[in-house]
Write a structure and sequence with these properties.
Order of helices and strands: HHHHHHHHHHHHHHHHHHHH
Distance between the termini: 46 Å
Number of helices: 20
Helix content: 55-70%
CATH class of the largest domain: Mainly Alpha
Number of strands: 0
Number of domains: 3
Shape: globular
Radius of gyration: 23 Å
CATH architecture of the largest domain: Alpha Horseshoe
């Protein structure tokens, strides 16, 4: 039972010391997964009541869903992260970083600092596990950890369970759309057709309007483009491509203060490249290049411009502008790709470089193929296998 209690506490975000706290835990479980477990049952599960009664299969299944584990057996082998006194001090500091009042004013310096904090947490699995309950419940961390810096590179791996907890915890329209789109992308890249279908249903049940960020707007369309391409539904694919360009016209641009980067066009060009529609990708790139700045102006996370350069290079190569593609590729510093999707774009860069190789028997080709396979195994993005 100690392992089970640890698993629940990590998900809940705090140690459960007194039996009275099971009332709040029951409410949190219901809010997260829509299943009612009575406070009295939870007292038995957590050992506050020892009457010989064991949790029912339905209770254990609900706890599995709450803790985002696949099998009941996992609940009983949970281990508390091994943390030193220095680790605990660091974790408390990281928590305090998100302990501020939310403001409608955009503070880019705080935003950048949050990026550094997110990178530190993601690179320390023990920290992420220990902080996961807090991060998914904190209104500030929901925005500045999960929404501003969703770790795409880990969305087909262990990070997915933490991101699912965020989606369970934040129920507003934009968060649900954004969250399910990210989970869809992970399922698509991992070729998990069951999850792909589950997420596309949720995505299409949520309206996307101009009041939300261009990323979720574009990711809803991207999800449908990928989905209908995967299942070869040409009628729906044509419809969603049309929607993409209709919605593109509504995006803020030019001298509008918040139009710092063509997030919508960038996302859609990437989506069109993934399905091999390079002409549509080119149209999106041209619109972005005409109406937005093509360089870092200080109010966009480091790495997005480099990623967009790679998207351009891929498109140019496949429409026959191979010299332009080579020129762009030569100026790209892949180390500067934004850290949340560094490997995602590095995989695409390796594939482009493989396509540019004159022969598969060269040493360079074999080296690139080895690097590509390593990245695919690392991320679980099996859809990129060639």
């Amino acid at each position: 039972m100690n392992a089970l209690k640890t698993k629940i506490e990590l998900r809940y975000g705090k140690t459960i010391t007194f039996s009275a706290e099971c009332n709040k835990l029951a409410s949190h479980i219901y809010h997260a997964i829509g299943v009612k477990i009575s406070a009295q049952t939870l007292r038995r599960v957590l050992g506050f009541i020892n009457d010989g009664s064991k949790p029912s299969k339905s209770t254990l299944k609900a706890i599995c869903d709450y803790c985002n584990v696949d099998h009941v057996e996992e609940l009983f082998v949970a281990k508390k992260p091994k943390l030193s006194a220095i680790d605990i001090e660091q974790i408390n500091f990281l928590k305090s970083f998100y302990d501020i009042d939310l403001s409608s004013d955009y503070d880019f310096n705080y935003h950048k600092a949050c990026g550094n904090i997110a990178r530190k947490i993601i690179n320390q699995p023990n920290y992420l596990e220990a902080l996961s309950g807090f991060l998914t419940k904190s209104p500030v961390a929901q925005i500045f950890f999960f929404e501003r810096f969703p770790y795409i590179d880990g969305i087909a791996g262990d990070y997915k369970k933490y991101f699912k907890r965020y989606v369970q915890s934040k129920q507003d329209q934009e968060a649900q759309l954004f969250g399910n789109c990210i989970l869809f992308l992970g399922a698509y890249l991992n070729q998990n057709k069951k999850e792909i279908t589950e997420h596309i249903k949720r995505i299409n049940s949520i309206a996307a309007n101009q009041d939300i960020h261009p990323f979720p707007q574009a990711r809803k369309i991207m999800s449908n483009v990928l989905y209908h391409h995967l299942f070869n539904n040409q009628t729906e694919l044509v419809k969603w491509k049309k929607i993409a360009f209709e919605e593109e016209k509504k995006q803020l641009r030019g001298n509008t203060p918040s139009a710092h980067f063509p997030f919508f066009q960038f996302t859609m060009a990437d989506a069109f490249n993934l399905v091999g529609d390079y002409e549509s990708a080119l149209k999106m790139i041209r619109l972005a290049d005409l109406d937005y700045k093509c360089y870092d102006n200080g109010v966009v996370e480091l790495g997005y411009f480099e990623c967009f350069d790679l998207v351009r290079a891929i498109t140019y190569y496949h429409i026959g502008r191979k010299e332009d593609a080579t020129r762009i590729l030569n100026r790209i510093e892949s180390a500067k790709f934004i850290f949340i999707c560094h490997d995602y774009f590095l995989i695409q860069q390796k594939i482009l470089e493989l396509n540019m190789c004159k022969s598969p028997t060269t040493k360079k080709y074999r080296k690139l193929k080895t690097e590509l396979n390593w990245l695919i195994n690392k991320t679980g993005f099996t859809s990129f296998k060639i």
